[in-house]
Design goal:
Oligomer: single chain
Order of helices and strands: HHHHEEEHEHEEHHEHEEEHEEEEEEE
Number of helices: 10
Radius of gyration: 23 Å
Shape: globular
Structural class: alpha/beta
Strand order of the largest sheet: 1-2-4-3-5-8-6-7
Length: 458
């Protein structure tokens, strides 16, 4: 019986053993000097240029509006939308007008938190993809704010952390990515109506469906600017990433196949979350993503959910320790404690790290080759695992990933040349889960593809 395999390092005996096995199985081995870099130089360069001062300026500018409540009209939300539009137009003009900036306005019908029909506006900046424009990555923050009473559209509601912080990250990414070229289209979205029921995100997700866009990844940044919790605990080295363990768009046949093969934790959103964690590990030192296997915080909801509900991979970034004194509060001081979501309670150094993490994830995915197709795990009774795939023409390498069935994240990996379409691993398919992803010559990694067992997928 083979001992369980655990990836340790490139010089470990077990890796050498696996390398020899792959060489025997495929006839080809990627030499150390032929391997791609762990990080794409263009992505790494963009990450280095995140600026704390610009993030703080954006947060303070948005918090200066008396309120940005969804229903606050001309003096509130509409004025904030105008300011965001001007900021993004300036970014576009500074980068050869490559960003397509627009106000996406619609009439929201009356509902639970909208007493009568209301005209609402999302502010979008779209960076068209060079070679795969229909493949879309969306990053968002919501610019509306609130106080204790979600229907109070007039009380001061600075909304610095919830969610000027997320909008600031989105704008910073637009500034740093607008002058660069990517195969995929990137949508930088400042959406409204989150506090009234995810209205802006729902409208944007529906638009993506109507335009038949292939949203390969969606991330929302909501409450990402505070590193210290109400209990005084400070954690400036990590960011939580929520992902759902269900897929509302899954067909009955897909559900049956997933249950039969045990890929319960490999939904599209979970796969996206693991890829994001890997990007942050490769591009940032001293900062990481904590994978939370839940769609959102307990009993709460965020702007990624409308995308999830339409079958797209979607996740939510949020800070590790929240301080409820500075969320959804009327501005006041009680017993010496200041309540309210004010800009002085935002940790701008931490927010800069959040922006770097976002940039690493989104730019890496946008730069990468497409996902391998027809990834198959041979459903035989062999103690080994045979994987096959079709490599994208844009890929230089294929990376095989594996983890034990009880592990939350990938534990081991191995590179093959893109010309290889099959590999046999000395790992029991009963005990491990697998994925295959494409790697470009410069090191950018695609999303992993989870293999279909027994036959090639349609």
């Amino acid at each position: 019986m083979r001992a369980p395999y655990r990836f340790v390092s490139s010089v470990s005996f077990m890796l050498v053993w696996l390398s020899v096995w792959l060489f025997v199985s495929t006839g080809v081995l990627v030499r150390a000097d032929d391997r791609p870099p762990k990080t794409d130089p263009g992505v790494a360069d963009a990450v280095r240029h995140v600026r704390r001062d610009r993030l703080e300026k954006t947060v303070r500018a948005l918090a200066a509006f008396p309120t940005r409540h969804t229903l606050s009209g001309a003096s509130g939300a509409d004025a904030a939308a105008d300011w965001l539009y001007r900021e993004l137009k300036a970014v576009s003009e500074a980068n050869g007008h490559r960003l397509q900036v627009e106000k996406d306005t619609w009439t929201e019908p009356a509902g639970t938190r909208v007493p009568e029909p209301a005209v609402l506006t999302n502010v979008l900046a779209i960076l068209p993809g060079e070679s795969r424009p229909n493949d879309v990555i969306v990053v968002s923050g919501h610019y509306d704010s609130r106080v204790t009473d979600v229907m109070n559209a007039t009380a001061p509601a600075p909304g610095a952390n919830d969610d000027a912080s997320g909008v600031a990250v989105t704008l910073e990414l637009a500034r740093l990515m607008a002058g660069r070229r990517y195969p995929c289209t990137i949508v930088f979205a400042a959406v409204t109506g989150e506090e009234q029921g995810l209205l802006g995100a729902n409208h944007l997700a529906e638009r993506m469906v109507g335009e038949r866009k292939n949203v390969v990844a969606m991330f929302t940044n909501d409450i990402v600017g505070n590193s210290r919790g109400e209990n005084g605990k400070k954690e400036s080295h990590r960011l939580r990433l929520f992902s759902a363990g269900y897929d509302p768009a899954e067909t009955t046949a897909q559900t049956a196949r997933r249950r039969a093969t045990g890929t319960d934790a490999d939904t599209r959103s979970r796969t996206l979350a693991r890829a994001a964690a890997d990007s942050v590990r490769r591009y940032l030192r001293g900062f990481s993503l904590t994978l939370i296997f839940r769609n959102d915080r307990y009993g709460r909801g965020g702007d990624h959910t409308p995308f999830l509900n339409r079958g797209f991979a979607a996740c939510r970034f949020t800070e590790p320790n929240e301080d409820w004194r500075h969320q959804h509060q009327d501005l006041r001081t009680e017993n010496g404690i200041v309540y309210g979501d004010l800009p002085e309670f935002v940790d701008y150094g931490y927010l800069a790290q959040v922006a770097r993490a976002n940039l690493a994830v989104i730019a890496d995915l946008a730069t990468a080759p497409p996902v391998p197709k027809r990834v198959t795990l041979r459903g035989d009774l062999s103690p080994d695992t045979t994987l096959s795939w079709e490599s994208p023409v844009e890929s230089a390498f294929i990376e095989i990933l594996w983890r034990k069935t009880t592990a939350p994240d990938w534990e081991g990996s191995r590179l093959c040349p893109a010309t290889v379409g099959q590999a046999v691993l000395p790992l029991a398919k009963d005990d491990y889960l697998f994925a295959v992803r494409a790697v470009g010559r410069t090191g950018a990694r695609s999303l992993p593809a989870i293999p279909v067992s027994g036959r090639k997928p349609a």
